[in-house]
Automatic annotation (TrEMBL):
This is Integrase catalytic domain-containing protein. Residues 184-359 form the Integrase catalytic domain. Coiled coil: none annotated. GO terms for molecular function: aspartic-type endopeptidase activity; metal ion binding; nucleic acid binding. It comes from Escallonia rubra. The lineage of its organism: Eukaryota, Viridiplantae, Streptophyta, Embryophyta, Tracheophyta. Residues 434-456, 476-499 are annotated as: Disordered. Gene3D superfamilies: Ribonuclease H-like superfamily/Ribonuclease H. GO terms for biological process: DNA integration; proteolysis. SUPFAM superfamilies: DNA/RNA polymerases, Ribonuclease H-like. Keywords: Aspartyl protease, Hydrolase, Metal-binding, Protease.
Length: 835
């Protein structure tokens, strides 16, 4: 046994002694089950004095560390723990290191106790109150503070059996709580309360909020039970849905609790006084109480609950830096957590406990908005496919034991129980929004309180986590540029329109085009703004263009009247087309021999440079695949981004927020916005908030492939939506007539009337009726040429629903779902292989 020079008694620490045969303690009063034994011989302490001994049945130092037959010697100075007796009684092993030691179960290796070295001795410190030293890994109060929706630390201490170690005075400062929960001093509260659940409920509607939630909701209905303060939240698109949710809730209470609600308190909103609801109140003897006008304090229970919900919801959103359209998920999760929070009005009990008669569990809670990985249950399963996919944790489902996960790849919300969480990582960072590892396999307890009936899995928006230029190109696409032209770019990453196979009969003659560059001596003076036709160039350009035109006309080529840059040659079954722009020339056709003769002829005249197959022309990249030809303007877009200094920006899934209007205060308005569209026309009436002018959008298809599209502000202010649509029809028909002339030059005949789809019946009637009308007399005469082409059956106007109007994508900012729905119908596909 080790000796010491001091004579005073030690603290309650136990010295681990390999030389002692029994456990010995001097603190008899702190021990339990003390029995005086007279047959035990006296004990001689270190100073030679003989003292009596008390036999102790048991002393508990931890949950699994229990000492039997401890000898109590009040005059002894130390608490000694015998290693031999401890290993024999507890069937354990002790492992000593330089500064500490551990006690473990011999078979399971489970940790029983831990001690440290002090002054050359190994001490085991007991836990006050008889609790285990190391029963399980503790989690910091700050982590539980985040998991529980920023619940105050003093409230966390009220939750029993929570693995948490904290000091309320030493918890870290949380600025999210101040930003989310700062409020004015409250009014005095009424102390009148009911005696049991569902005697009296409080209801109110919050909203409308300016931004739609993921599922397009602007409101939420809140129901609070007066006795238990249990809260139910239902997201709503319109206030008219209140009746449906209230009736569902009444039936749920009757079925689950065999009770009928006796009183309902609301404000004076008409949605609570619907005819069907009033009939239900009367049939079931329910009293409907309403607050006075402009007196929300009379419905203070639900008003304060709204404040509590929004405080927690804001904290959840700020914590994860989520986009604002996640506000609905934040509110639903806030309601779920509030039902499990101890409330002072309930004497520090939870609504869940009062309503259901059992305490809630907390082990399944995780940090809202954190990164997680959901297990993939794909069928049939690919042996080399990923076994998990990344997502964002966005809440707890109703009626399912799992987690709601926002899939970053498929843009959907799904429910899964096989999820692993990285609670310290949030995919949405402050820089990407312009604002601002612990793994578990346990199942959550979703409980029986319905928080929402909205569990659909529609596609939603996702954060972009990769740069533009990192996506690989599909191996089926042949891309690249001529090795001899250093200025011609390569295709790395773009979206292009696919040429469908059913149109290949008409366009197959153009699939073998070649590109040529004329020598510098014949090239015009460089101009940073390319002209729309060669006649608009400088004198050198005009001289070159005239010389090139004369050379082609001399060998039988015909110049197009629709586009003076296009030259065609037709002889028998042979067809050759030449397109020239400044010093770039494209040659294509059906007769390879005649194309070779033309190349030789041009080479003798101008000394041309052969660049091979067409791959890049006027900012358009050309790629080939078995599915057809892909056209892309990726390099053109990247050049614009480089000029604006935005090369490092992240891509967006759709160009503008829904219902967003451009203004001078928001930045410079784009003069032109071009998107793929076809023989569909549309107009956004008075869409410009400054000039109140309308926007025309159209798209024209050749078969299934878009060949012309436009979005442009109209030159005059329209007095009605019909007039704006009528002007859009006139602009579209002008483009159709020009395209028909161009197709005739390319030996493509258009004998049937072109179908022009418009979603405004009034505009269609104006176009079909040539009779003078009071409402159309101010419209310019040139717009009325629509009627001439309708009568000559060149154009056939047809009505279409707004939902099927493809040109809608050109006239206004659309939401994510609508934008990608129309994008798919326009024939847009990607050049990138799946990653």
């Amino acid at each position: 046994m080790a000796t010491s020079n001091f004579s005073g008694k030690t603290e309650n620490g136990w010295i681990v002694d390999t030389g002692a045969t029994n456990h010995i303690t001097h603190d008899v009063n702190s021990l339990s089950n003390v029995e005086q034994q007279h047959n035990i011989p006296p004990f001689q302490i270190h100073d030679g004095k003989t003292v009596p001994v008390h036999a102790l049945r048991q002393i508990t130092l931890g949950k699994r560390l229990i000492l039997d037959q401890v000898l109590g010697v009040p005059d002894f100075c130390f608490n000694l723990m015998s290693v031999s007796k401890l290993t024999r009684d507890l069937n354990c092993t002790l492992t000593f290191w330089q500064n500490f030691f551990v006690i473990q179960d011999l078979h399971s290796r489970r940790l029983i106790g831990v001690g440290r070295e002090r002054n050359g001795l190994y001490y085991l410190e007991p836990i006050k109150g008889g609790k285990a030293l190391t029963a399980r890994n503790t989690i910091s109060a700050n982590t539980w503070h985040l998991r529980l929706g920023h619940l105050p630390v003093n409230r966390i201490s009220l939750i029993p059996d929570l693995s948490v170690s904290f000091d309320c005075k030493k918890t870290s400062f949380c600025d999210v709580c101040y930003k989310a929960k700062q409020t004015r001093l409250s009014f005095p509260l009424s102390m009148n309360k009911t005696q049991h659940v569902f005697i009296w409920i409080h209801c109110d509607i919050w909203g409308p909020y300016k931004t739609k939630s993921i599922y397009g909701c602007h409101f939420f209905l809140t129901i609070v039970d007066d006795f238990s303060r249990a809260t139910w939240v239902f997201l709503m698109t319109h206030k008219s849905e209140t009746k449906e949710y209230l009736l569902q809730f009444f039936n749920w209470v009757h079925t689950q609790f065999h009770m009928d609600i006796k009183a309902l308190r609301t404000d004076n909103g008409l949605e609570f006084s619907h005819r069907d609801l009033m009939s239900y109140y009367s049939d079931h003897g329910m009293e409907h109480q309403t607050s006075c006008t402009d007196t929300p304090q009379q419905n203070g229970v639900v008003e304060r609950k709204h404040r509590h919900l929004l405080e927690v919801a804001r904290a959840l959103r700020f914590q994860a830096n989520l986009p604002i359209f996640f506000w609905g998920e934040c509110v639903l999760t806030a309601a779920y957590l509030i039902n499990r929070m101890p409330l002072s009005t309930l004497k520090d009990r939870t609504p869940y406990e009062i309503l259901l008669g059992k305490k809630p569990t907390y082990e399944h809670l995780r940090n809202f908005g954190c990164l997680c990985y959901g297990h993939v249950n794909s069928k049939p399963r690919d042996k080399f496919a990923p076994r998990a996919k990344p997502g964002i944790f966005v809440g707890y489902p109703n009626g399912q034991k799992g987690y709601r996960i926002y899939d970053l790849e498929s843009k959907r919300i799904y429910v899964s129980r096989d999820v692993q969480f990285l609670e310290g990582i949030y995919p949405y960072t402050k820089s990407s929004l312009g604002e601002s590892r612990q793994v578990s396999n346990e199942e959550p307890d979703a409980g029986n309180i319905p928080l929402s009936t909205d569990l659909c899995t529609d596609p939603v928006e996702e954060p972009v986590m990769e740069s533009i230029a990192t996506e690989p190109i599909s191996p089926d696409i042949e891309v690249g540029c001529s090795e001899s032209d250093e200025s011609t770019p390569t295709v790395e990453n773009q979206q292009a329109a696919t040429l469908p196979s059913k149109r290949q009969r008409q366009v197959s003659r153009f699939l073998s085009g070649y590109q040529y560059v004329l020598p510098p001596s014949l090239a015009p003076v460089e101009n940073n703004t390319p002209p729309s036709s060669p006649s608009a160039n400088s004198t050198a350009s005009r001289n070159w263009y005239q010389k090139f035109t004369a050379a082609l006309l001399a060998i039988g080529f015909r110049q197009s009247t629709a586009d003076y840059s296009l030259f065609t040659f037709t002889h028998g079954g042979s067809f050759v087309a030449v397109l020239v722009y400044v010093d770039d020339v494209i040659i294509t056709g059906t007769d390879s021999d005649r194309i070779c003769k033309l190349k030789n002829y041009l080479d003798t005249k101008f000394h041309i440079k052969n660049l091979g197959k067409l791959k890049y022309f006027l900012g358009i990249e050309v790629a080939r695949s078995p599915a057809g030809i892909f056209l892309s303007q990726r390099k053109y877009v990247l050049d614009i981004l480089a000029e604006c200094g935005l090369n490092g920006c992240k891509p967006a899934s759709f160009p503008m927020e829904q219902q967003h209007k451009l203004s001078n205060e928001s930045g410079e308005i784009c003069k032109k916005s071009r998107r793929i569209s076809s023989a569909f026309c549309d107009a956004d009436w008075a869409g410009c908030p400054m000039t109140r002018k309308s926007t025309t959008g159209y798209i024209i298809f050749l078969g299934s492939s878009p060949v012309s599209w436009r979005a442009k502000k109209q030159t005059v202010v329209s007095r009605s939506s019909a007039e704006a649509e009528y002007r859009a029809m006139a602009t579209t028909i002008s483009e159709i007539i020009w395209l028909k002339q161009l197709l005739q030059d390319l030996e493509v005949s258009c004998t049937t009337p072109v179908s022009l789809f418009c979603d405004n019946r009034a505009a269609i009637h104006i176009a079909a009726n040539p009779v003078f009308h009071e409402r159309t007399k101010h419209i310019e005469i040139d717009c009325h040429f629509i009627r001439q082409h309708i009568q000559s059956q060149t154009i056939a106007t047809k009505s279409i629903s707004s939902q099927d109007q493809l040109a809608d994508i050109f006239t206004k900012a659309l939401g994510h779902d609508r934008f990608h729905q129309l994008l798919g119908k326009l024939g847009i596909s990607t050049l990138h292989a799946p990653t």
